[in-house]
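Hey Z.,

So I finally got round to the DOR thing we talked about over coffee. Here's the setup:
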Amino acid sequence: MSISSNLIVRNARILLPTGDFMTGNVQISGKTIISVTPETTATVSSDFDREIDANGLTLLPGVIDPQVHFREPGLEHKEDLFTASCACAKGGVTSFLEMPNTRPLTITQADLDDKLRRAAEKCLVNYGFFIGATVENLPDLLTANPTPGIKIFMGSMHGPLLVGGETELDAIFAKGQRLIAVHAEDKARLEQRRQEFDGITDPAIHSEIQDNETALLATKLALKLSKKYQRRLHILHLSTGEEAELLRQDKPSWVTAEVTPQHLLLNTSAYQQIGTLAQMNPPLRSHRDNQILWQALLDGVIDFIATDHAPHTLEEKAKSYPNSPSGMPGVETSLPLMLTQAIEGKCTIAQVANWMSTAVAKAYNIPNKGSIIAGYDADLVLVDLDNYHPVLREELMTKCGWSPFEGWNLTGWPVVTLVGGQVVYERGKLNTNVRGEALTFEDNYSNHQGD
Ligand code: DOR
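And the result:
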């Protein structure tokens, strides 16, 4: 595999921005799509460094995963930017937005610059990094650049990355206009319930301790503050039916929300099958929550999908609850998981592409990404919707080496992934010479206008 500067994808079933499909060709020059034409149109130029025969394959915009934890710097025994970006390339994820709970925490411009430098060196896909809020770093939050936004952990504990009290939160919502993304779990209720259930080692208790009310209380508070200041708010990994119903009734145009595949497809029954591997924050919920979240996604109450890829080693996960860490990997299974849902009739392929790419680019104001249009960046994924293949531990590229979806038989696996017009993954092989770019966020100070 060579790095191509001029490439054509021939005879693909191309997803158009209208949501329709067209069989045709996509021509790419450098990092840019230069034409999207039907099969019958004569090709403008035959001078290509590379042709990809996409007969029988479907071409989608590359996935933009807006919430991942890639562990570098400081926790590289779990994952690092190279291994995580390899997993992204295999999973059709061409861009990611990463969270600040690394070591050191990403709470200053210097921390952000360090991550950007590391990513430029070793990331196979495009990257952006959140700045984390503490009770002390407001000046950093106001000026950090480039960043998709400010991440606030309202209840989960990552040292100083915890802003749970209304007064401290109010101070952050009041100043500036940058997007605020919240991990919404109520600090006080969480602490009180941890004490109440102390000593129980059954991991299923995790969903009881950090219950639906714990999430709902925090989401209500974030919404209240966002409305007070008309502050652009994004609610990360919505997990409960109650939060979805709240947003259905009252969601300002400047508020967005996301859901993870695991909160749609797994529930508390997973503890019996995979124990602490099912432990994450916010926790898995009931089958009823799965159903309400699905409906909210289909109805546009929830805007898009994120994996919350949060790898921990199997050794760490083998500790008994509550010493087992919360989190599960996701970037290399999210697209086939969701496309399998589409093929099985739960939603359409166009909806999956919207939730996993188009809507994310729009919400974070990432220019020229999220659609297959001439002039846009050639971040693309060719998927095979005709064959099923199980999630196998031995095929995973994430350093943590496991998935909560092992054994699930999925279709829609990526066959070729392109980042900036370069083939980064093709039929099981990575091109580790490819490097992504730092994402830019246009106008991310202004309120998001909903449809
Ligand atoms: O389960 C989780 N694990 N949820 C988060 O929000 C953080 C993550 C982690 O970093 O391990």
